[in-house]
Amino acid sequence: MFVELIATIVAGIACAGLVMLLNILTGRRLPKWMMPVAAGLGMIGMTISNEYTWYARTTESLPKGLEVAMTVEEQGWLRPWTQIWPYTKRFVAVDVATARTHQDLPDQKLLDLYFFGRWSPVNQAPMLFDCAEARSALLIDGAEFDADGTVADADWRAMPKDDPILAKACTA
Q: pLDDT above 90 covers what percent of the chain?
């Protein structure tokens, strides 16, 4: 976040500098308000650019085995351009590299989910998926496994069969 703030300030200074140079080259014929307007437009442009490139920059740096399962796009009236081109504000990644199953329950898979947000820290949560029943259980508070591999205290929740997180987990 600090690097983006510095980049935004530098963009504003660079745009103001370009207008100052253009003013010198034209014999100081440009109005005085052009320099602060250029600085502001440069800073707004840099902020918009950072919003739209955050998702691509973040997914490029994901470790191997972490695959994006779902994205959430944002639109807002305070940013009218997002009504035409929404940007990705959040996404969920599934750690398919560390998927675990029990030999007696091959339809159940235990995976780690990672929740990424634009201005939020990354959150991780283990989740148990039952691919045959299309349901999941979040295991944040831990879980106790019986000898046969079943989870004793799982709070199972039904999921739609076309849920992208379920699909990604069941193909892992």
A: 83
